Structures are given as structure tokens and as C-alpha cells.
Amino acid sequence: MGCKAVSKMDTDALMGAGGSAYQAMSLTDADVVTMSNESCAAMDKQSQVAPASSPYTQRLTRAIRGMPDTVNGKKADYKVYMTKEVNAWAMANGCIRVYSGLMDLMNDDELRGVIGHEIGHVALGHTKGAMQAAAAASALRGASGSAGGVIGQLSQSQAGELAEKFINAQFSQTQESAADDYSFDLLTQAKLERKGLVTAFQKLAKLGGSSGSSMMSSHPPSAERAARMQKRIDAGK
């Protein structure tokens, strides 16, 4: 996932954005879930969602067997967006979206590794910070009232802008490594193949760049992340 995460936000910039930016920084877990509901719905509306009959949807349904059916206590809601973009993301409300471009690039083991990574950002609390940053940087700063009031005033365009900023959020190196480890541990617990994490990073290293899924982040470099996952496999833990 390009806007900076909250831990990297510039305090002076937030002061310039006005009081609602500070409200955004104090959003509760419930607020974040509510905003995720609206953001995900906005993205679904503006994206081409693969129907149940689509080979992509059917493949994803098979691939996620053994993967979590809840995310932080929320029912996992998996859908495919039909686009050549290589991306995937997850939100605190259980919304998990995988792009067909990613599915074209990855085999099922690699796909599960990417999904586990994105779920990791939610489980480890990283996406809460990303949503706070997105709210502070989006049109929400023009709204008035309490944090709850701001949420209640979200228009379709605001929800869409919030979603875009959330999806483009950039996590820190520490957060990316922690999400990598979360995916590795998740696959280990589910007795699923972990090698896909290694080969997924190797493929992303060849693509280069830092756009798309947070798995695509070049911090730390994809080749180094692949080597670290292979080292964990070799160590048997």
C-alpha cells in the first residue's frame, strides 16, 4: 500500500490541515471500521467486481481455503477487481480485495502469501494508522464536528477519496517486515506452503517500483525480503 503512514506524518502539516485532522488522528477502532465500510463500498462501486461465475472469483475461492474467514473478529469479505494493476489490500472491516493483475502474476501459494501480508497489516494495527492518515489528508478535513460527526458526513466522493488515500498508504520498513512475518506464521499455522512468499517477492523484485500493494514496497527491497523468508524456511520456524 503511497501516502505516509501516521507514524511518519508531519505534525506541522496536520496543524495546517485544521482541527478535523486532529480528530482523524483520534479515531477509535469502531470509527475505523465504519470508515472502512464506507471506503470499501465506494471502491466496489467504482471498480469492476468479478462476478461469482468469473474464473478469477472461482480461483480465489479455491485459493483461500485454509485462510482466515475473519479479520480482527470481522467476517472476511473477499472479492476480485478486474484490472491489470498488481495490487491487493485489506481493511479493518474484513474487506479484502485482490486485483486480477496480481492473480495473473502469482500462483496460488504466492497469492496466499500476499493476502496473508495484507491481513497482517490489519491484525497488527497498521491499517488503523493508515486510515487515520488518509482521513487527515482527505476532504474530511473540510468537515466539521466530532470524529463521529465527520464519519456521518461522508459523501460518495469523500468515501472514494478516503479509500484511494488508504490504498496508497506507505508503511514503514518495520511494519512491512512485521506483516511479512505475520503472513509466514499464518501460513505455517494453517499448514500451507510458505515458499510462495519467497517467490512472490522474487517476482516483485523483477517488476521493481513501489506502487500497488504494500507487498510491492521497495522498503525493505523485495529481494532482501525474499531472502529473509527463505532463511525462516531453512531454519524451520
Structure commentary:
With 237 residues, this protein is mainly alpha-helical. The chain has one domain. Helices cover 58% and strands 9% of the residues. It contains 12 helices and 7 strands. The strands form 3 sheets. Strands 4-6-5 form a 3-stranded mixed beta sheet, with helices on both faces. The protein has a two-stranded parallel sheet with strand order 1-7. A hairpin with a 2-residue loop joins strand 2 and strand 3. Helix 2 packs antiparallel against helix 7. It is globular, with a radius of gyration of 17 Å. The N terminus is likely disordered.
Helix-strand layout with pairing:
Layout lengths: L2 E2 L6 H7 L1 H7 L3 H18 L8 H9 L6 E2 L2 E2 L1 E5 L6 E3 L4 E5 H6 L2 H16 L2 H12 L9 H6 L3 H12 L1 E2 L2 H17 L5 H13 L14 H14 L2
Parallel strand pairs: 1-7, 4-6
Antiparallel strand pairs: 2-3, 5-6
